[in-house]
Amino acid sequence: xxxxxxxxxxxxxxxxxxxxxxxxxxxxxxxxxxxxxxxxxxxxxxxxxxxxxxxxxxxxxxxxxxxxxxxxxxxxxxxxxxxxxxxxxxxxxxxxxxxxxxxxxxxxxxxxxxxxxxxxxxxxxxxxxxxxxxxxxxxxxxxxxxxxxxxxxxxxxxxxxxxxxxxxxxxxxxxxxxxxxxxxxxxxxxxxxxxxxxxxxxxxxxxxxxxxxxxxxxxxxxxxxxxxxxxxxxxxxxxxxxxxxxxxxxxxxxxxxxxxxxxxxxxxxxxxxxxxxxxx
Length: 280
What we know:
Blueprint: H1 2-5, E1 12-18, E2 37-48, H2 55-65, E3 70-76, H3 81-90, E4 96-100, E5 114-120, E6 124-126, E7 131-132, E8 137-140, E9 145-148, E10 154-160, E11 166-173, H4 182-206, E12 213-218, H5 227-232, E13 238-240, E14 257-262, E15 269-276
Parallel strand pairs: 2-3, 11-12
Antiparallel strand pairs: 1-2, 1-15, 3-5, 4-5, 6-10, 7-10, 8-9, 10-11, 12-14, 13-14
Helix pairs in contact: 2-3
């Protein structure tokens, strides 16, 4: 399978949740899903479009996706490919649906992309379409200027069919860039990651009850290489499930792909997480 995936860039990072017993829920007609395991993940599928993948490749991608129940995807580059992926998924196991942002986001033509989600519709409902968060300016004090966040995050909320568990996934693809000096490119990435702390805290502050928020995405920096990423972990009970010893990017030692959340709120987390090494 490695030949077919070599250009897919990243592996799939995932965590595991268990739907708990929060008490009697009156008026719910869906069968109880208490005790059900849910696996959530993130995958950067490089330049993901109907033109860039044929049917056989979509089938291979679907084989990997079936390892999770709800998957956030970045680098979606058209409005067709997620529907084609859902067709391939439905031909393999379960019932699947997809949602994606209405517009591409990015400050340049080359950086623009959609964010998308595919999920098991026989386990979950999407509570709303993915929504882009407000763009912010990112200070670069070492260069005495500010830059616009290249691809601001998007979020989408999901709930189990019996409404026992709901959660929100916030997905982001931190800027890479190529037309600036390397030091400035690194500074831009750090500035965007610093801004993620504000995005996360603002999202949590607006929620008065359900604070099961998972921040996931391609940060374009590895574990331990970013002071800004370390600042994210100063949020109370925040953890990053990406391990420095387990690469998330194919043919490298890079650990660019991250899933972070507060264990004090995401009590359903089982402690199980990892990287699906489909290329091995």
